[in-house]
Write a structure and sequence with these properties.
The structure holds two protein chains of two kinds. By secondary structure, chain A is of the alpha+beta class. Chain A is about 20% helix and about 35% strand. Chain A has helices spanning about 65-80, 110-125, and strands at about 5-10, 15-20, 25-30, 35-40, 40-50, 90-95, 130-135, 140-145, 150-155, 160. Chain B is α+β, with helices and mostly antiparallel strands. In chain B, about 50% of the residues lie in helices and about 25% in strands. In chain B, a hairpin with a 6-residue loop joins strand 6 (about 160-170) and strand 7. The chains are: A alpha+beta, B alpha+beta. At the A-B interface, strand 3 of A face strand 2, strand 5 and helix 5 of B.
């Protein structure tokens, strides 16, 4: 990690962490869910695309892509850095971008299923959700600031709000 | 997974050139203005590249999304720069309609219906496959947010998509027309293309 980098960017199906005073962000979340797990000093973020790793037909599963494997990976990422404090989570995303097409392809409402799977996985890890900005029909860009544990959520019509 | 040969890609380009040619004619009649639509390139790209080609995850784009249904099943995603989509909507509505308004999106749907409907009709005609286009859904939002959900149902099977770059009226920027065959449909496509070459 470059010390001069103030913001760590996480791509689709990616996972990364940051330390104060850095921030960590992921952009263009639609049905995907951005999951931030943090302690007082460190924050890890995953850009989750699908609810269940059992959906994959390929053997080489990317754990950050699926809710059930991404959440344990986030916890492990924090432990590996030597942080064992109380973990909390903030999540955003899981929008339904094409509500008109729900009848054509139910898979298109993957957002709702992603959110449910992320909640379940966090509960299994005993990580409480402090803020949840999910659902709706708009894309979101999120950024988490470990310094004050706030999460900014930007949409193209709603501007930026902090949670 | 999408292991189409150079010959098969050329055939697909041929079908697409004719399909978009017909679409441009239909659009010309609707707009009362001569429209041209060419297909300079057909390519197979990775899912990861799709969002980058649309200008990055946060870039605002117009996306028209629909399905090809029947013996050949596929998803069509048509991606345009937001400003280009606004221009088309203004021409369709004959006013300075904001693209975010309901009329703007429905005009964009109509535009998508014409392009994709004509394309699919040409595809059906040339391949003799009884396929049809579903109703379209349009959305204007961040590229990452609108393109990913369209690709997701297929991302569990593989990570590639057929890209037909289309050029409207010789403009500098190309629009992207993505064709994503469902897993069982790749073989159908290959068989059909084989039949065409004989």
């Amino acid at each position: 990690m470059n010390r001069r980098t103030l913001t760590v960017n996480v791509g689709m199906a990616g996972v990364a962490y940051c330390l104060r005073p850095q921030s960590i962000r992921t952009s263009g979340l639609g049905s995907c869910v951005g999951v931030v797990v943090y302690t007082a000093h460190v924050a890890a973020l995953a850009h989750v695309m699908l609810p269940d790793s059992a959906m994959s037909s390929v053997l080489d599963v990317n754990p950050a892509k699926y809710a059930d494997t991404a959440v344990p990976l986030l916890a492990e990422t924090i432990h590996q850095r030597g942080y064992h404090g109380r973990k909390r989570a903030k999540i955003a995303g899981g929008a339904h971008m094409f509500p008109q097409l729900a009848t054509v392809d139910p898979l298109l409402d993957i957002g709702t299923r992603n959110v449910a799977a992320v909640r379940r996985a966090l509960r299994d890890e005993n990580i409480p959700i402090m803020a949840e900005i999910t659902g709706g029909h708009a894309g979101r860009t999120i950024e988490f600031f470990p310094a004050d544990q706030s999460l900014s959520v930007r949409t193209i019509h709603g501007g930026t709000r902090f949670y | 997974m999408l292991d189409l040969t150079a010959v098969e890609m050329d055939q697909l380009k041929e079908i697409s050139s004719i399909g978009f040619g017909h679409a441009a004619t239909a659009l010309s009649e609707l707009l009362q203005k001569r429209c041209k639509m060419t297909v300079p390139a057909v390519d197979i790209v990775a899912f990861d590249e799709v969002v980058a080609l649309a200008g990055g995850p946060e870039n605002v784009v117009a996306a028209i999304f629909l399905k090809i249904e029947g013996p050949f099943r596929a998803t069509i995603l048509f991606v345009l720069p937001a400003e280009q989509a606004s221009g088309i909507v203004r021409q369709l509505t004959g006013q300075k309609s904001d693209i975010d308004e309901e009329t703007g999106l429905s005009a964009l749907n109509e535009f998508g219906n014409i392009i994709a409907g004509t394309y699919v009709a040409t595809f059906a005609d040339m391949t003799k496959l009884d396929v049809r286009a579903s109703i379209p859904a349009s959305v204007i939002d961040m590229a990452g947010a609108v393109l990913t959900p369209g690709l997701l149902p297929l991302s569990v099977y593989g990570d590639e998509v057929i890209l037909l770059q289309t050029d409207f009226n010789d403009e500098k920027r190309l629009a992207q027309f993505y064709l994503l065959p469902e897993p069982g449909s790749v073989d159908v496509l290959r068989q059909v293309l084989k039949g065409l070459s004989q």
